[in-house]
Amino acid sequence: MDFNFKLTAEKYQKELLEKVIPFWENNSKDEQCGGYF
């Protein structure tokens, strides 16, 4: 089994930038006190 670091890094980067970060930007804002959780 060969491990392709570049392919794996691209997969994680895409997941982070397209799903994880947008989710937390939209769902972690503290409307009552300001800032983010």
Overview of this protein structure:
By secondary structure, this protein is an all-alpha fold. The chain has one helix spanning 5-27. The longest helix has 23 residues, at 5-27.
Multimerization state: single chain
User: What is the share of helical residues?
Assistant: 55-70%
How many individual helices? 1
Main sheet overview: none
**What is the string of SSEs from the N terminus onward?**
H
Beta content comes to: under 5%
| Beta strands, count | 0
The unreliable regions are none
User: In whole angstroms, how far apart are the ends?
Assistant: 40 Å
Alpha carbon gyration radius: 15 Å
Class per helix and strand makeup:
mainly alpha
Shape: rod-shaped
Question: Residue-averaged pLDDT, rounded?
Answer: 91
